[in-house]
Write a structure and sequence with these properties.
The complex is a heterodimer. Chain A is built from two helices and four strands; from the N terminus they run βαββαβ. Helix content of chain A is 10%, strand content 16%. By secondary structure, chain A is α+β, with helices and mostly antiparallel strands. In chain A, β2 and β3 form a beta hairpin. In chain A, the strands form two sheets. In chain A, strands 1-4 form a two-stranded antiparallel sheet. Classes of the chains: A alpha+beta, B alpha/beta.
Chain lengths: 97, 393
């Protein structure tokens, strides 16, 4: 999106509000919806990648050392990764802001 | 070269869709629309019409498939009626919000319950504010011409909205009338292939029908509202061009004998022919009644209506749908708004008629005229603001 949503005038919108620039969801950081975040216990983590696979927002990335972490700009804290983690290596920890 | 044929109006409607070279059709059969979609299925199956005919399990799916087909850039047609239109209702808003120029033949029928397969305007009046451009037809010729015009209007870059062509169930859909069909060549010249602004295509991905946060929804709906308001000029332009090229005249507001008459009836659809018969009979008795009919119903042609109504003394709005607890019927309410907005001093009367296929003869319409001209404001039974023609009480 070329500018924040609340700055668009009605006649600046595309016909039918079609979004022409693909992938612009990146510009909208949804991480601030989160009330708790996933925290990995690296002693239990087997680097299996299930958390990465199940994350509905593609907000989990693999680090160079093979462990996984959440991209907190986009992680909404849904907890699916923690639920799916077989060795129970992910804990959802309440955010303090 | 055009050809004139005696044909059932439903079949003629499907021939019109074929002449418009529709590319995608999704429909679910429902009385009294059935013959339209049956005949189109036949044309596709026989290889006479090159179109994708999508068989679906309901009208909700039919309109959903139309939305998808239209989004890919296909010229898309459907038809429904009554309960089917109700089942489509949710998707009707999506089609207009996404600005997809789907054309629908809406065969107007009563709503259950009690169950009725017969004609009235309950279905379309329940769908009148879905953001579709809407016209009403009086006879089969108008149905054929309006379907061809509808694609040109809907697909115009200044419009890009879905459009309904309304025709009365049975009293219009199932009658056999002499209809003049324009040649394919002439239709092709009038209606070039659809050139969509956006298409769903993997080579150039776009997102359609996305979510709008409160910061944007008002602007989105306002822009859609401006589109339907501004479509009036294009409807007029297309009607004028059609009149020039095919020799049959169409206007946003149709009138009959309005020059001399102080009293006018206002109505939509096939009843207009009965009203004209009543007007002719009254004329023989030296009495003047006029007819004003908004052929274009959405957007509501308020300025054009005001032009013909401004000098009138009595306006009688006749409509084929119960108010459902409202003060008056839906058409009357809009006419009343127009009268107030323009500070007109006029006697307004409202009658409901023809529900669930009840015939209204010209004689009954003449009685309504006599009742209106002989009285001041009519007091209806039970202090209602409207009368119901022919109701036994």
């Amino acid at each position: 999106m070329a500018k924040p949503m609340d700055q668009y005038k009605w006649h600046e919108l595309t016909v039918g509000c079609v979004i022409e620039d693909v992938g612009n969801a990146m510009e909208y950081k949804t991480g601030d919806w989160r009330s708790s975040k996933p925290v990995w216990n690296r002693e239990k983590c087997t680097k299996c990648g299930l958390c990465w696979l199940f994350c509905p927002d593609a907000a989990i990335r693999q680090r160079d050392d093979g462990f996984y972490e959440a991209d907190l700009d986009y992680c909404k804290g849904c907890g699916i990764c923690a639920k799916e983690c077989k060795p129970g290596a992910i804990a959802m920890v309440e955010e303090e802001r | 070269m055009s050809t004139k044929k005696g044909m059932e109006v439903s079949i003629a409607a499907s021939v019109a869709a074929k002449l418009a070279r529709v590319e995608a059709i999704a429909a679910y059969p429902i009385t009294p629309q059935t013959h339209i979609v049956e005949h189109l299925a036949e044309l596709v199956a026989n290889g006479e019409l090159e179109a994708a005919y999508i068989n679906v399990e309901s009208e909700h799916s039919a309109m959903s498939a139309c939305v998808g087909a239209s989004a890919t850039g296909a010229r898309t047609f459907t038809s429904t009626s009554s309960q089917g239109m109700e089942l489509m209702h949710e998707i009707l808003f999506i089609a207009s919000g996404m600005r997809l120029p789907i054309v629908m033949a809406a065969v107007n029928r009563a709503l259950s319950s009690p169950l009725s397969i017969w004609g009235d305007h309950s279905d379309i009046m329940a769908a009148r504010d879905t953001g579709w451009v809407m016209v009403f037809c009086e006879n089969g010729q108008e149905v054929v011409d309006s379907i061809i015009m509808a694609f040109k209007i809907a697909e115009d870059r200044r419009v890009l909205l879905p459009m309904m062509v309304n025709l009365d169930g049975f009293s219009l859909s199932h009658v056999i009338e002499p209809i003049e069909f324009p040649s394919q060549e002439d239709v092709d010249r009038f209606l070039p292939p659809y050139n969509p602004l956006y298409t769903l295509h993997p080579d150039k991905p776009v997102t359609m029908g996305a979510y709008a946060m409160p910061e944007l929804y008002t602007e989105a709906k306002y822009s859609q509202e401006m589109a339907i308001r501004n479509s009036k000029g294009v409807v007029k332009e297309v009607m004028d061009q059609f009149s020039r090229e095919f020799g049959r005249t169409y206007n946003l507001v149709e009138t009959y004998n309005t020059e001399k008459a102080d009293t006018v009836f206002m109505a939509l659809g096939s009843i207009n022919e009965n009203i004209k018969t009543a007007i002719d009979s009254l004329k023989e008795q030296g009495k003047e009644l006029g007819l004003v009919s908004p052929r274009l119903f959405r957007p509501f042609p308020a300025a054009e209506l005001f032009e013909v109504l401004k000098d009138k003394k009595k306006i009688v709005v006749l409509e084929r749908a119960m108010p459902g607890g409202a003060m008056n019927g839906p058409l009357f309410n809009e006419v009343a708004s127009l009268v107030v907005a323009n500070g007109m001093s006029v006697q307004l009367e409202n009658f409901i008629f023809g529900l669930g296929g009840r015939d209204v003869e010209p004689e009954e319409l003449m009685e309504v005229y006599e009742q209106v001209v002989s009285s001041g404001k009519i007091t209806h039974a039970d202090n209602k603001n409207y009368g119901v023609i022919g109701v036994r009480s």
